[in-house]
Amino acid sequence: MLRIYVDAATKGNPGPSGGGIVLVGDHLHEQIHVPLGECSNHEAEFKVFIKALQLTIEKKLNNQTVVIHSDSKIVVQTIEKQHAKNLLFQPYLKTFQQLEQNFALLLVKWLPENQNKGADSLARQALQKYQ
């Protein structure tokens, strides 16, 4: 099983944004920070979520049970309901639906912010580095 933790940080809303991704599995613990460009805080959360799934596929880690954790209720609820009222979020949902087909089993779980400190720290590092 692979666990992925994602979080985003944005300076201003919208503003420069960074994302943090933590991959944890058998003999694997990888920490990644990525620039997300200029976007709103919610868009940044979607972007890092999608980036984490793309990285998982690129690294060929998608042939096992994958649980992706986010502290963004908007992202998790959009995925769970398979519906985005906000027009800005619809492309992210569509991309998720396309990526999901590449996974043996993909579970999306919300977790409280205080349990996502690793990904949060990486997101803040990315924000500082890529401003």
Automatic annotation (TrEMBL):
Transmembrane region(s): none
Domain RNase H type-1: 1-128
GO molecular function, one term: RNA-DNA hybrid ribonuclease activity
InterPro entries, A to Z: RNase_H-like (IPR053151), RNaseH-like_sf (IPR012337), RNaseH_domain (IPR002156), RNaseH_sf (IPR036397)
CDD domains according to UniProt: RNase_HI_like (cd09279)
PANTHER family assigned to the protein according to its UniProt record, in alphabetical order: OS05G0353850 PROTEIN, POLYNUCLEOTIDYL TRANSFERASE, RIBONUCLEASE H-LIKE SUPERFAMILY PROTEIN
Name of the molecule in the record: Cell wall enzyme ebsB
Species of origin: Enterococcus caccae ATCC BAA-1240
Highest classification ranks of the organism: Bacteria, Bacillati, Bacillota, Bacilli, Lactobacillales
